[in-house]
Amino acid sequence: MQEIYLIGLGNPGKKYYNSRHNIGFLLLEKLSKKYNSNFLLKDKLKSSCSEFQINNSTFRLFLPNTFMNNSGYAVRAIVDWYKLNLDQIFIIVDDKDLPLGKIRFRRKGSSGGHNGLKSIIEQLQTQNFKRIRIGIGSPPLLKGENNFNTISHVLGNISIEEKLILDKVYKRVIESLENLNIKKEDHIINELNSFNKD
Fold first, then answer.
1. Active site includes 21?
2. Per-chain mean pLDDT for the chain
């Protein structure tokens, strides 16, 4: 039986629950809820975990409780505990360099300045892991300056308008993840990368 490991990035706690930086958490919570599975805290994995079957495959979902900038410690714990080949893990993460609602599935790559990905690369000592990046759009310029207000953008709450777009994104990504053991991965990569929110 195939085992698929999905790790959503975000920050634990009510304060951050609906923030743009928590898209990885929000997506996996939707997927878990669809299969009536709850997340349970597992200290040894530094994460809350949910597990269920889809099409004869075991899906294991993880929400690290290390906070975004230390995501790598949770990923390292998960990889070590299950003795995983890095090919089995998928990281789901927000991306401020992609337009809102755009999806990018890559098999490897740099952190692109994302602290969660940076931490994972440091802990795994490689950039060769799959990541599904979901666009949250660029932060607005600070008034009267040429600097972006990045922190308040990524930690800011998702607006009602943004949620309508992101709900379509979650639906598309969840459908693709459910087919990971049926369709070829290249097909899923093309499916997600060509997704149009309109």
1. yes
2. 93
